[in-house]
Amino acid sequence: MSHPFQVLGEANKPFLESCRHGDLAQIKKHQEAKALDRELLTMGLREAAQGDHIDTMRHLLNAGAKPQSPSVVDEVHSVEAVKALLEHGLTFETRLHPLNTVPLVHLVKRDDVRLVHWCLEQGADPTFGCPNAQSFNDLEKPDQSPKKGSGAVLGMASRRSSPEIVDLLLDHGANIHSSNVLHYATCRKDGRALPIMDHLLRRGADVNEFGYPAFLHFGGTPLHAASYQGNLPAVKWLLEHGADPGVEDAQGSKPLDLAALEEEDEICDVIYEWTRLDDTGKADYRR
């Protein structure tokens, strides 16, 4: 069964293509031909943002498109585009439904130093976002309003951005000890996990920090995260930098248990061999 938005998009391809190309004349013709509801206008705004067509964005916003849509903010990649959204009701503390995020979480994914620096200079708070989970029950709560003291922005930067973005956030008040930064860095699939982990360690990250990133329901250390994600280079890096493979998560599982659960045989071998070489008197974690 097709998603309602997909059906809406298929039925209005000419309008959305006009938005994608920033063709204001054609957009106005579509508006004259029939009334366009807010959802369709917002879909058009997303297309215009993707192409960085600022005049088109402002036109659609004036017509009623929603600046608070996370799918729109996800496509923004210039200061001028952010300005357009801010002029029409978005703020850096706006809660973006249904993802329960704030704009800066989305903007750091662009890995654009100029864009993030501008947002921070305009007052965006890198500690404002979804509250940090302190237990499994926190992860299960359906409605947690963003607030100060969050590590969501820095966590996303660790997962998707460069060391320069991480430094910007830290220099503007982000807390490296409440953001699960190494946990999220192990999620990287772009070949940049180890360089960002090196940088985070230099900035004070703890290789044995226990946290509750969204993908670890029972919490754990960065080694739990890397083992669960199947990131063998990150597992080796963490062990070499002092990660403790004997720490248990809230359910009593060690990193080796998670690797075994995910059938990550190489990681199981590495962790087992590391513990055996480290202390031959330790228990065989594979039992």
From TrEMBL:
The keyword Repeat applies. The keyword Repeat applies. InterPro entries: Ankyrin_rpt, Ankyrin_rpt-contain_sf. Residues 131-156 are annotated as: Disordered. ANK repeats lie at residues 149-181, 218-250. SUPFAM superfamilies: Ankyrin repeat. SMART domains: ANK. Keywords: ANK repeat, Repeat. Pfam families: Ank_2 (PF12796). This is Ankyrin repeat protein. It comes from Aspergillus kawachii. The lineage of its organism: Eukaryota, Fungi, Dikarya, Ascomycota, Pezizomycotina.
